[in-house]
Design a protein that fits this description.
heterodimer, A: alpha/beta, Rossmann fold, B: 251 residues, alpha/beta, TIM Barrel
Chain lengths: 193, 251
């Protein structure tokens, strides 16, 4: 199993690496298109602000590489949001793999949402062995609305996409690497897709 | 529904936990990683590590500790204590800290918060505010609450939100260590005033105090140290009690 984590200066790479290492898998951190293409599975991490993340992807040419990947890809947090068409966060053009607009929570709720929330309507092998209404850890100010690609739902102000899937591209808004045993299960499931 | 968080706080000196920690099953009571794992298993939602050491090697020791914690702990954790620059934060986040907690340095130079949030995102910037009620107004205190300032708690809270704080951890110096409950009146005012999560700190003595700060203080999270370290409160029991009162918690 060759697992590659895309290296473009995202913040949570260490924690994702540690999470896989806890069950014996060592991801390779790489920005080399050939190395990424040769992986069995790819992790697309992301923490921080959308436009500067896209800027980094464009600089390295990875914005052209990622949409052409054919193996299972898992975007985490901002990594998931960048799979979308656009984001309200500084009017950012995303990778456009999923034709949705990332929106900001309104000020009717505290922003960012920080903490543990339930996910439900789980509809993917990514959630095998994970219960409906399981708690996951989330930290985010922007969200992807419910859409055809939604494979899990979370509620904060409104129901929104906790996870997405389009073909080989998967995305989770929560942090599986920080979501205790259930999060670890999800990472294991991703490896066996 | 987003749940209310319970956060044990570990004071760290030279890479070891301080205060007599009363855990019979610990092989090494001074090992922060082992203690963190116990809290993690008993249902803590997050952890905070506050480095109170003043040694020259402080930065390196703390960075090493963060690396060890991140390798073992499957829940988020925040690191604080003497953080005063972008470089300090960079090392800690790179080593696996999820958030950093900034206190005195932000009061002395508020622009630091803009620098940190634009560089790392506001989600990982927790601003700790220690304050004490003097006459009728809450004044911010520095250096672990020892040095008073003229800064007003509520004005400062508003300012840190504007400058990019993702969360505020408010410690009432009047309540800290008393075990008489959290400063719920001030907390309620804070949660009304700003639109970022508020962590209540200082004053936890029993399980009801946690329920009260969620109900009356409107706090998003509650932090405590000694009641957990001395096993006066078990996190699993606490959560059961909170749930009985209709407070959403992760169980």
């Amino acid at each position: 199993m060759k697992l590659v984590q895309i290296d473009y200066g995202a913040g949570n790479v260490k924690n994702i690496q540690f999470a896989f290492e806890r069950f014996g898998i060592s991801p390779v951190l790489s920005s080399d298109p050939e190395e990424i293409r040769s992986a069995d599975k790819v992790i697309f991490p992301g923490v921080g602000e959308a436009s500067s993340a896209m800027e980094k992807l464009r600089k390295t040419g990875l914005d052209k590489v990622i949409p052409t990947l054919t193996q299972p890809v898992l975007g985490i947090c901002l990594g998931m949001q960048l799979l979308c068409e656009t984001s309200e966060e500084n009017n950012t053009q995303g990778l456009g793999i999923i034709s949705e607009e990332v929106k900001r929570f309104s000020n009717a709720v505290k922003v960012p949402q920080i903490g543990w929330n339930r996910i439900h309507d789980l509809n993917s092998h990514l959630f095998d062995g994970i219960d409906e209404n399981e708690f996951m850890y989330l930290v985010h100010s922007y969200y992807v609305p419910l859409c055809d690609e939604t494979i899990a739902v979370c509620d904060y102000e409104i129901p929104y996409s906790a996870a997405l899937r389009k073909n080989n591209f998967y995305g989770v808004q929560f942090h599986p690497e920080k979501s205790s045993i259930a999060g670890e299960q999800l990472l294991k499931n991703f490896l066996s897709l | 529904m987003l749940t209310k968080r319970i956060i044990p706080c570990l004071d760290i000196k030279d890479g070891r936990t301080v205060k007599g920690i009363n855990f019979v099953n610990l092989r090494d009571a001074g090992d922060p990683v082992e203690l963190a794992e116990i809290y993690c298993d008993s249902g803590a939602d997050e952890l905070v590590f506050l480095d109170i050491s003043a040694s020259e090697e402080k930065r390196k020791t703390l960075a090493d500790l963060v690396l060890r914690v991140a390798a073992r702990i499957r829940i988020p954790f925040t690191v604080g204590g003497g953080i005063s620059s972008v470089e300090d934060v960079e090392v800690l986040l790179k080593n696996g800290a999820d958030k950093v907690c900034v206190n005195s340095a932000a009061v002395k130079r508020p622009e630091l918060l803009n620098e940190l949030s634009s560089r790392f995102g506001n989600q990982c910037i927790v601003v700790a505010i220690d304050a004490k009620k003097i006459d009728d107004s809450w004044k911010v205190h520095l250096v672990g609450g020892k040095v008073p300032t003229e800064v007003d708690l509520f004005e400062w809270a508003k300012e840190v939100e504007e400058r990019g704080a993702g969360e505020i951890m408010f410690t009432s110096m009047d309540h800290d260590g008393t075990k008489n409950g959290f400063a719920n009146e001030a907390l309620a005012k804070l949660t009304e005033l700003v639109n970022i999560p508020i962590i209540a700190s200082g004053g936890a003595g029993n399980e009801q105090h946690f329920a009260d700060t969620f109900i009356y203080g409107n706090s998003d999270a509650a932090l405590a140290a000694s009641v957990f370290h001395f096993k006066e409160i078990k996190i699993s029991d606490l959560k059961k009690k909170l749930k009985e009162q209709g407070i959403p918690v992760r169980t």
